Amino acid sequence: MHKWIHYFDIYERHFSRFCNSAPVILEIGVFGGGSLAMWKEYFGAGAKVLGLDINPECKQHEGDGVEIFIGSQDDPAVIEDILSRHPRIDIVLDDGSHMMRHMIASFELLYERIHARGVYMVEDTHTCYWDEYGGGLGRQGSFIEYAKGKIDEINAVHARGVLPISSFTRITDCISIYDSIIVFEKRSQGSRQAPVTGPL
Question: What is the pTM of this model?
Answer without folding.
Answer: 0.94
